[in-house]
Design goal:
alpha+beta; 26% helix
Length: 104
């Protein structure tokens, strides 16, 4: 029996990074090479205590600033249905720290 996704089963983020930068971050987060499944989702199970967690990487149009600067944009969708709320919060905090850029 399937169920409708509960709030928090999926989290979407709009990020500015290339696929290579993203895969490097996934490797830092999971401690393993970035792997995609047959549907193209990245496996984050190693960062979630072995529970099945994936994320999708969907390129978006570049952001253009002042007509001079182009920034890559991607929509990242994390599927967190296998995690309880506390584990979701922990994984999301680690995900955000992993992809945090310098600055103040």
């Amino acid at each position: 029996m399937s169920r409708d996704p509960a709030p928090g089963d999926f989290v979407e983020k709009l990020m500015s990074c290339t696929r290579a930068e993203f895969e490097t971050g996934i490797e830092r987060l999971t401690g393993a090479p970035a792997r995609q499944d047959a549907e193209g989702a990245y496996d984050l199970s190693a960062a979630a205590g072995g529970r099945p967690v994936t994320c999708a990487f969907t390129p978006q149009p570049d952001a253009v600033l002042g007509g001079l600067v182009r920034l890559p944009r991607v929509r990242v969708t994390l599927r967190l249905a296998a995690l309880d709320p506390a584990a979701r919060g922990d994984l999301l905090a680690r995900f955000d720290r992993t992809f945090q850029r310098g600055g103040g």
